[in-house]
Write a structure and sequence with these properties.
The chain is α+β, with helices and mostly antiparallel strands. It has 7 helices and 4 strands. It is 40% helix and 17% strand. Bound molecules: adenosine-5'-diphosphate (ADP) and magnesium ion.
């Protein structure tokens, strides 16, 4: 069960540029099922906690500022091989290296403002889904 989940966020710039619908369509067309979803704005404390693993890296402070700068959409997704398949769908972290047709290639505006988050492991997918959603918010 658990290995079939991943977690994504539509980041503030992609949300502000009204790419939410197009990104969700790509996600659905790729076979992912939405198991929980909400639009919200992260506080600096929440964004800092979510990206705690990157604390101390040169991009951490600006990442936290950016991720708390406007609304995001948080989404739990289900699909066989969800984590790996979603990383393939979104493309490389730096959009300059992202493959053609990937979400980041299409909708990123910079390395930092790269349209979407995607979990990097089954364990982190579950931790990240639990960070955002209670049991009653998940279908
Ligand atoms: P990913 O989101 O692909 O898992 P990381 O976990 O390495 O990538 O980094 C988290 C986020 O931090 C990235 O999505 C991006 O927004 C930002 N980031 C990572 N590395 C850099 C960098 N060198 N310069 C600017 N922003 C970065
Ligand atoms: Mg990561």
């Amino acid at each position: 069960m658990a290995e079939n989940l991943t977690f994504t966020m539509i980041k503030p710039t992609a949300f502000k540029n009204n790419h939410t619908g197009a990104i969700l369509k790509m996600i659905n067309d790729a076979g992912f099922v939405i198991k929980a979803m909400k639009a919200m704005r992260l506080s600096e404390v929440q964004a800092g906690a979510f990206y705690e693993i990157h604390k101390g890296k040169p991009f951490y402070e600006t990442l936290v500022q950016f991720m708390s700068s406007g609304p995001i959409v948080a989404v739990v997704l289900e699909k066989e091989n969800a984590v790996e398949d979603y990383r393939t769908l979104i493309g490389a972290t730096n959009p300059e290296n992202a493959a053609e047709g990937t979400i980041r290639k299409l909708y990123a505006t910079s390395y930092q403002q790269n349209a979407v988050h995607g979990s990097d492991s089954d364990d982190n997918a579950n931790l990240e889904a639990d960070f955002f959603f209670s049991k009653t918010e998940r279908v």
